Amino acid sequence: MRLRTGKGWDEWFALLDEWGARDKGHRKTARYLLDQHGTAPWWSQAIAIRYEWDRGLRK
Length: 59
Hints:
Elements: H1 2-5, H2 9-19, H3 26-37, H4 41-54
């Protein structure tokens, strides 16, 4: 993970919490990661999905 994105899961989750991802939805979160943090499209989706699972937003 860190090798591909520059951050570990906990770092991404903290960043997304600070940004308010809980209230933004999947599409905006993935776009934010892509546009503001330069993650590749696949990783933007993977981080957003894993965040949603971790925070109980996705079953």
